[in-house]
Amino acid sequence: MTERLLAPHEAAIAAAGVRVVLHSVVEGELDEDILTQALVHLRACYPLIAGKIVTGDGEGRPLLVRVDETAAGPALHHGADLGKEINAPLAWDRGPLLRPAVVREPGRTRVVMTLPRAFVDGMSYLAVHRRLWDLYTAIAEGRSLPDDPVQPVLGPALDDLLAARFTPQRLRDFVAERARLDAEAPPALLPALAAHDGGPGPDTTFAITGVEADIDQCARLVERARDAGLTLNALVSGVLLTSLRSLFPVQAGPVRMLCTTAADMRRRLSPPLPAEVLQSAATTTSIRLRITDHAHPAEVGQELAARLRADLESGAAAMELAAFPYMLDQHPPSLVITNVGTIAEPVLPDGLRISDVRLAPLGHVPMVFAVVSRYQGRLAIDLTYSRAWYTDAQIGELSSRLSAAVDSLTT
């Protein structure tokens, strides 16, 4: 049995119940018996998915993650629909940590995987997804694949690795400076219209809504980004921020916005952490921008990209996670953006194909999450939120403005 204390950032998001859902659409006849066998082998490759989060002894009763190689692996569930499945009750204190489910839809099947955000990021989740379908295909074709555990089974906490680079005083000074900036000009937030008396409202369900750009639209967005000297993600981030800005009242000057952008730390560790290691190895960097009501997405994207590069080079992105215990009382962001990049299409047996793959972080926190991804040449921008804080109408309006902005750039 292996266990360790949860790092501060892991403990905070575990206590908040933040989950990450990876859902894929399978075209063709999915064999559930083969999928069940593949899950058995997946559990051998990743013992952590059969682990649990428990409360330790001692003062403060800290949270621990415990991996018992003899514990039962994840069982295949059957969901009524995607909306119900992303809201399925989870019991991470009893385990297993992974909840796999099949949702049958007319003419297709959706396979839904749910893991706690504390132990997964986009890169490792997609690696787990690829391994599952490699195993499925091997079993279906009568081949064998090695299912030795990916090492380390339980990696060290990223907080500790990054905190070792800085003195405690430097981290405290970093946090104090961020607090000073927000005290001078608090960032604008989308009003939490579903909240009740300053706390979460009675509807504790999650929701996902999104905007898609087809292959032609995506190609035109790539061209627009290239013309502006930007990556596609930087341009899309500019589109997201200007769309959100349009929901705030028009005023003479710019609106202060705080954008939290995910930054992968795997290749910045020494030694680098392979994508296959199941771990939360992404930090965030909080970028403060002043955006006018007539700002162009490319202009905002250029500023965001420059600030992100500077934060990575200066170590600010690493300090943001290393200083997590001090950051808990900081001002919440206007928007959280995660770019998972281009998702590779799994190789499946004849007669099967995966036509879509999406990732969605979900937690009952007063934040709007935007996940940007590409699959089979298409672009997806998913907005995920808790109905305890935001109404469907609010996020629907943001989605409509986002769609209009994408259309404007691609026509």
Give the topology.
Blueprint: E1 2-5, H1 8-15, E2 19-27, H2 32-45, E3 52-55, E4 63-67, E5 77-79, H3 82-85, E6 99-105, E7 108-116, H4 122-140, H5 158-163, H6 168-184, E8 206-213, H7 215-227, H8 232-245, E9 255-264, E10 282-291, H9 297-314, H10 316-322, H11 324-327, E11 335-342, E12 353-362, E13 369-375, E14 378-386, H12 392-410
Parallel strand pairs: 5-6, 9-11, 11-13
Antiparallel strand pairs: 1-4, 2-7, 2-12, 3-4, 6-7, 8-14, 9-10, 13-14
Helix pairs in contact: 2-4, 7-8, 7-12, 8-9, 8-12
Task: Kindly describe this structure.
The chain has twelve helices and 14 strands. It is α+β, with helices and mostly antiparallel strands and 411 residues long. A six-stranded mixed beta sheet has the order 8-14-13-11-9-10. A five-stranded mixed beta sheet has the order 5-6-7-2-12. Helix 2 (32-45) crosses helix 4 (122-140). The chain is globular and about 65 Å long.
